[in-house]
Write a structure and sequence with these properties.
By secondary structure, this protein is of the alpha/beta class. It is built from ten helices and 26 strands. It is about 20% helix and about 25% strand. It is globular. InterPro entries: Peptidase_S8/S53_dom, Peptidase_S8/S53_dom_sf, Peptidase_S8_His-AS, Peptidase_S8_Ser-AS, Peptidase_S8_subtilisin-like, Peptidase_S8_subtilisin-rel.
């Protein structure tokens, strides 16, 4: 007998992510309220569900439930809960741009695979660069090659690419350095590559387009911003007012970063450092809230964790939500959560995705999301970094401006923002990263800075009219860069 196939599903009301507080208590609603974490469904429902069908998580008595059950029992569950929607659990991913190998190189005629090692050293000091991911493509178009990580001596050991021409080489250090990129080379044993350290007063694209608010200026004051991501901090440049972890099974109070992505995104919005010893975000005086939806050593964020985080952000009074994630299928639960935020006076900025001119990914493609694509500017990152291949047409009215080659496009784009070579906070220091993940918080931070002086809007009742007023106001603060609506939507927000 074959083993049963288990799946996770989200139970939702017929409309929205929760039953209204004033809704009459139907039988279905009362049944949903009884489904609490660790409850076996068969203890609450009639029918023939096995003890393997369980409730994993809940957003509250009137809200969504995450359940696990054998796929063969799904029809029975639908029959017993005819007034509820049953939505599959799906996952979304950080929209940080980074090349990865998809398959190992095939054999060369007449040659055997051989190993080779290289050394990474910091420019001038010569100290080893530790923990850098090095990606060597033998066939870039097919994503064929090998990747490895530098050890404590800065040594990178490859097993199978010796004596082969390398199509493109990408080096991604972790903290404190610019990336490195080179085309058409053959790696020899003990070749040394010099990596440039990052200076925090460097004029990246963020600093080129937006003057940093001086210390003491009320840039963003009075606005609450939620970052739904891999967590945030701790970091000396971040003052995090609150947050939560909504990952099923994790400590709900632990919203510290399990990666680096969320700390980087948060710094773009709200870092309070002063160069050259720190970095400064677009709106350093906002109240920053961090909601961790990614588990430890888990690359994807569940739609259930996301809707739980959005509901919590609304409950905490956040005005703007930043979601630098995407890449999953369209999903009713996530759409309903974004609609819930909108109906409660909160707007959601979402990264368009990094699929190289493909259509805008979900959830940015949802009509109530504010979808943000990425642009860059020549001269705001070193020429030999991994951002060099991201320079691509179309170019703007100013020919130094370009739409990042990775940025997704289409009629769903609302804004564009700097997202190439953006220097921000990461656990343990600072680093430049690229992606629509970086562009999205740029737009979020500038929006917070603009809205902070619009007290008449911020004081409105927290309903859909408030969210619509915020969007209409922001539409008056946009300038086109000359890329065209398919690439930039209405353009870039400016203070």
């Amino acid at each position: 007998m074959s083993k049963p196939v288990y799946h996770n599903y989200i139970l939702l009301p017929k409309f929205g992510v929760r039953f209204p507080d004033n809704a009459p208590g139907s039988d279905t609603q009362q049944t949903l309220a009884r489904l609490k974490p660790n409850t076996q469904l068969d203890d609450v429902l009639d029918g023939n569900l096995t003890d393997q069908a369980v409730v994993l998580d809940s957003t509250g008595q009137r809200g969504a439930k995450l359940v696990r059950l054998p796929e063969s029992e799904l029809a029975d569950l639908r029959a017993q809960l005819p007034g509820l929607r049953i939505v599959p659990e799906v996952f979304y991913y950080p929209q940080r741009w980074q090349r990865e190998v998809q398959r190992k190189p095939g054999p060369l005629q007449g040659q055997v695979r051989t190993g080779v090692k290289i050394v990474l050293k910091e420019a001038k000091s010569g100290k080893p660069v530790v923990g850098a991911v090095v990606v060597a493509f033998t066939n870039f178009d097919e994503r064929e090659g090998e990747q490895a990580t530098s050890d404590a001596q800065g040594v990178v050991r490859f097993k199978s690419i010796g004596n082969r021409p390398i199509d493109q080489l990408y080096i991604y250090p972790k903290v404190g350095y610019w990336s490195f990129w080179k085309q058409k080379l053959t790696i020899k044993d003990n070749d040394t590559f010099t990596i440039q350290p990052v200076k925090l007063d460097y004029q990246d694209a963020k600093n080129f387009f937006y003057s940093a608010a001086a210390e003491g200026q009320p840039a963003g004051r009075g606005v609450k911003v939620a970052v739904i991501d891999t967590g945030a901090g701790p970091h000396p440049d971040l003052n995090i007012a609150g947050g939560a972890c909504t990952v099923t099974g994790d400590d709900p109070t632990d919203f510290s970063d399990v990666d680096e992505h969320g700390t980087h995104v948060s710094g773009i919005v709200a870092a309070r450092g002063i160069p050259p010893t720190g970095v400064r975000g677009a709106a350093p005086e906002v109240e920053l809230y961090a909601y961790r939806v990614f588990g430890k050593n888990n690359p994807g964020a569940s739609n259930f964790a996301i809707i739980k985080a959005i509901e919590q952000a609304v409950a905490d009074g956040c005005d703007i939500i930043n979601m630098s994630l995407g890449g999953g299928p369209s999903d009713d639960a996530t759409e309903d959560a974004i609609s819930f935020a909108h109906d409660n006076g909160t707007i959601c900025f979402v990264a368009t995705g990094n699929d190289g001119r493909q259509p805008v990914s979900f959830p940015a493609s949802f009509s109530l999301s504010l979808a943000v694509g990425a642009m860059g500017r020549k001269g705001t990152f070193p020429a030999n970094t991994t951002d060099a291949p991201n320079v691509a047409a179309p170019y703007g009215t100013d020919k130094k401006n370009f739409v990042a080659a990775f940025s997704n496009i289409g009629p769903d784009v609302d804004f564009i923002a700097p997202g190439v070579g953006i220097v921000s906070s990461v656990p343990g220091g600072y680093a430049p990263l690229s992606g629509t993940s970086m562009a999205c918080p740029m737009a979020t931070g500038v929006a917070a800075r603009l809205l902070s002086v619009e007290k008449s809007i911020l004081s409105m009742p927290r309903n859909a009219a408030r969210a619509e007023a915020m969007v209409r106001f922001l539409a008056t603060k946009v300038k086109t860069l000359g890329f065209g609506p398919t690439f930039e939507g209405t353009g870039m927000l400016f203070v």
